[in-house]
Amino acid sequence: MKLVVTSIAAAFAVAATVAAAGAHANGSPYSPGLVQGSDGVHTSTAPVRYVALGTERSTIVAAIRLRGGRVMRSRILRGIWGIPIVSYDGSTGGISGDGRTLVVASYGPLPGEPGTTSFTVLAAKSFKKLRTVKLEGAWSYDAISPDGSRVYLIEHLSAGPNPRYRVRVFDLRAGRLLSQSVIDKAASEAIMRGQPATRASSADGRWAYTLYARQKHAPFVHALDTARRQAYCIDLPLDLGQPQQMALRLKVGAGGRELIVRKGGTRVATMNTKTFVVRAEES
């Protein structure tokens, strides 16, 4: 036991030195990517944040107390893993709303090229490995249900400024990828397009709101109900080019009843999270 503790402590010291030099993020041409170091990810249900710290051939996953920075627990994983970045504003994900399940990810191949993408699922309280998920093709993490039973993944079909993708579900209890995509039933097709610019979530982790920027089209909000496997796509009444769309930010307000869209410090639109009705704000 002493040898194991010493090994972890030494590896953590090396990784901490690397992290101090700057967080390593992105590296993916088709998704926001992964992050090692930085602030990691945390949930309102626990006073800790979860970080991934890279060494030469392995990754340390650590739980760090928000106040004081004390390392509560850690585990070494073989290979290169990171905390998922879910949008290009740097928002991270991977922890379930109940704070019990943590997902870290690896990079996969380019869309259309051979190879696999891997995800490791850990019990956040003990870092016991619950499952390793390996999928053929280019995938990235999107969200997780509040109870940690389902992971929502993005299957990337193409890269570029207006990429094609679809949302899929991996059932962790059944250990399988569900065949049907998660789509807005009112939409004409299952394939989506756009770049994830910013993300906001409900306090309980049930709803994941992602603003997607698009070329030649207005931005839209992808509202994902992670508890019920339902999605809604809501167009925003904003006449902005894609670069300006990428600068928009989301925030949940009014006790979860509103989704606020901001451009800099100005509110430009407000969405009712119950009805999905969007109101453009006067500038």
Q: Short description, anyone?
A:
The protein has two helices and 23 strands. It has helices at 2-20, 242-246, and strands at residues 24-26, 34-36, 41-42, 48-54, 58-65, 71-78, 83-84, 101-105, 116-123, 129-136, 139-144, 150-156, 164-171, 176-177, 192-193, 195-201, 207-213, 220-225, 230-235, 248-253, 258-263, 266-272, 278-280.
Word description of this protein:
By secondary structure, the chain is mostly beta strands. Helix content is about 10%, strand content about 45%. The chain has 2 helices and 23 strands. The strands form 6 sheets. Strands 11, 12, 13, 14 and 15 form a 5-stranded antiparallel β-sheet that branches. The protein has a 4-stranded antiparallel β-sheet with strand order 3-4-5-6. The chain has a 4-stranded antiparallel β-sheet with strand order 16-17-18-19. A hairpin with a 5-residue loop joins β5 and β6. The termini are far apart. The N terminus is likely disordered.
Secondary structure layout:
Blueprint: H1 2-20, E1 24-26, E2 34-36, E3 41-42, E4 48-54, E5 58-65, E6 71-78, E7 83-84, E8 101-105, E9 116-123, E10 129-136, E11 139-144, E12 150-156, E13 164-171, E14 176-177, E15 192-193, E16 195-201, E17 207-213, E18 220-225, E19 230-235, H2 242-246, E20 248-253, E21 258-263, E22 266-272, E23 278-280
Antiparallel strand pairs: 1-2, 2-7, 3-4, 4-5, 5-6, 8-9, 9-10, 11-12, 12-13, 13-14, 13-15, 16-17, 17-18, 18-19, 20-21, 21-22, 22-23
